[in-house]
Design goal:
By secondary structure, the protein is mostly helical. The chain folds into two domains: 36 residues, no CATH class; 190 residues, MetI-like (MetI-like fold, Orthogonal Bundle), CATH 1.10.3720. Helices cover 75% and strands 4% of the residues. The protein is built from 16 helices and two strands. The protein has a two-stranded antiparallel sheet. It is elongated.
Length: 307
């Protein structure tokens, strides 16, 4: 008796392909990361002591004592956590805005586009582990950077403008917004370094938009600004969600030298307070996860998917 084979829908085939692509990560996570992650969570609820007689560590369950110490007893943890999350939000927004408009420029047709793209894709190469290590550990480069900062202390254009505007707008929300804006401007190098992958993702989305869509918009009399917000932005909104999640996770992984991470490392390595350091790590992890979930929930409400 012949059986008719059911044809899989396009959505099902895409789902299968997606699961196949992430299968190596799932297998690797279960094999290598699941047990250490669970052990770290259990450690955050324990007081870890070292037994010299048996040359081993022992864990005594103390409940939420480490978390209470982090929030109620430690004088700096809440402040450092707030500052780190605020910096992460500002940096994520600046990276997304920068990468989006750079991708718009690089997607336009002009002479020398390949050369300009190569220049802007250099952050992807520079942000690799080896080159970052060379850059951060090179004493010569650090000395040159320090001398440049000292030489430009009084002649920096952005610094001069900041002083003028800060003097004109003293106090209130305006001054805090200005200081945040100039912090982003002063850190434009870090923003460009962190924008390589996002630029590539945005450009890949821009190239999938059919020219007929823009032609129809021109016939309807849309301006360039209207085409940007009514056509371009909705068509790549799904990639915006991908870039938001990637930028937040990438920031948390790359910022191992922040004051918060330094404090966690100090408690772990110097003070050997393993339970307390694990609790602080999990608090930061949960906060970042909550931010990612909230942003995903908000953006996914108006993401436009098209075939």
């Amino acid at each position: 008796m012949n059986k008719k084979h059911r044809h899989l829908s396009m959505r099902t085939r895409k789902a299968i392909a997606g699961y196949l692509f992430i299968a190596p990560f799932i297998i690797g996570f279960i094999a290598f990361l699941a047990k250490p992650l669970i052990d770290s969570l259990w450690t955050s609820f324990c007081k870890v002591t070292f037994d010299n007689a048996t040359n081993s560590f022992s864990k005594n369950f103390i409940g939420l004592a480490n978390y209470k110490q982090a929030f109620n007893l430690d004088p700096k943890f809440r402040q450092l956590l707030t500052e780190e999350i605020s910096t992460m939000v500002i940096r994520a927004i600046s990276v997304l805005v920068f990468s989006f408009f750079i991708s718009l420029l690089l997607n336009a047709k002009f002479k020398g586009r390949a050369l300009v793209r190569a220049i802007f894709f250099l952050p992807v190469i520079v942000s690799s582990g080896v080159i970052v290590g060379i850059e951060t550990n090179n004493q010569l480069l650090s000395q040159v950077a320090d001398q440049m900062k000292e030489a430009n202390t009084f002649s920096s254009i952005s610094g001069t403008i900041e002083k003028i505007l800060t003097t004109a707008i003293s106090g209130g929300i305006g001054s805090s917004v200005l200081s945040t804006l100039f912090e982003v401007i002063d850190g434009i190098y870090d923003v460009a370094i962190a924008s390589g992958i996002q630029i590539i993702i945005f450009i890949s989305g821009l190239q999938t938009i059919s020219a007929s869509v823009y032609e129809a918009a021109d016939i309807e009399g849309c301006t360039t600004w209207e085409k940007l917000w009514k056509v371009t932005f909705p068509m790549i909104s799904s990639l915006l969600l991908v870039n938001v999640v990637y930028t937040i996770v990438d920031y948390c992984m790359m910022r191992s030298d922040s004051e918060l991470m330094t404090k966690i490392k100090t408690e772990y390595v110097v003070n050997m307070n393993y339970g307390f350091s694990s609790a602080m790590s999990w608090i930061f992890f949960v906060c970042v996860g909550a931010i990612v979930a909230l942003v995903t929930f908000i953006i996914s409400k108006w993401v436009y998917y098209y075939e």
